[in-house]
Amino acid sequence: DWTSEQFIEATVADLQQQIGNDKVVLGLSGGVDSSVAAMLIHQAIGKNLYCIFVDNGLLRKDEFETVLDSYKHMGLNVKGVDSKNRFYDALAGISDPELKRKAIGRVFIEVFDDEAHQIEDVKWLAQGTIYPDVIESMSVKGPSATIKSHHNVGGLPDFMKLKVVEPLKTLFKDEVRLVGKTLKIDDTILGRHPFPGPGLAIRILSDVTPQKVAILQQVDHIFISNLKKTGLYDEVWQAGAILTPVQSVGVMGDERTYEHVVALRAVTSIDGMTADWSRLPYEFLADVSNEIINKVKGVNRVVYDISSKPPATIEWE
Ligand code: XMP
């Protein structure tokens, strides 16, 4: 029978044999997979693992600082790279969802390549690929697909010429979580909802600006922290907010307002392939809606998405 202890023991031994005294570079995302992959490789080769965590300006509120901090506490050799403006510049004026994904993928590769170049004599690229990613590698969505599409655009970035190591390639998500638990990775990382690589960019249904990101971060933060406070967070597979380009009329005192409509989305799912909308309690939705409208400037209406997948996808774009 498979146990996480045996898996860790065998994998650490394999990694030590495979990698020896070489240096390895790995991109951390804040998600479960890259974090567990990092801790496993760190267990095997310690400081020869160089982790890079990129702030693309599209993460949740305070996420970059909080997660970077927990990585440092875990003893990882990690460099946080603030590249917000490079991403915002590349996204300026783009509304098409696939063009957003392409721009984000391209800038990520540029930033990562710049950083990898600063690690002298690095030999390996580590990735947190898990078994379902291997099966789904034909999908147009997802960071690995983004990287693959660049194979054809001539000149590979240098880091992609590195040898690849993917220690989680045979595992399913629940096994990855078990390995993470055995490695004593924080529950705030292991229990985290899935979050798309392109981040909040694909939850802003129009062109992305730093101002819109700031509005959406506040809305999302109110929604997610209330889910956590009420214990509903763990009952939901994934939750988030969408900033729609629709503006609607409202009243505030004697004034009429004309501001954004935001949508809240929360779903239950096993694997993200199909999903049902979460039956969150009315009282909870009422509280979250009030708090958003009272606190977030630029938003005067909140709606809740009651569509299941299929046909509606989890993300709106
Ligand atoms: P959909 O919207 O297709 O999403 O129902 C299914 C799952 O995939 C995530 N998702 C992405 N993840 N890059 C990613 O890394 C992407 O471009 C992307 N698009 C969607 C989504 O958050 C959900 O968990």
From TrEMBL:
Transmembrane segments: none annotated. GO terms for molecular function: ATP binding; GMP synthase activity. Pathway: Purine metabolism; GMP biosynthesis; GMP from XMP (L-Gln route): step 1/1. Residues 2-192 form the GMPS ATP-PPase domain. GO terms for cellular component: cytosol. ATP binds at residues 29-35. It is an enzyme of class 6 (ligase). It catalyses: XMP + L-glutamine + ATP + H2O = GMP + L-glutamate + AMP + diphosphate + 2 H(+). Its EC number is 6.3.5.2. Catalyzes the synthesis of GMP from XMP. Homodimer. This is GMP synthase [glutamine-hydrolyzing]. It comes from Pontibacter akesuensis. The gene is guaA. The chain holds residues 193 to 509 of 509 of the full protein.
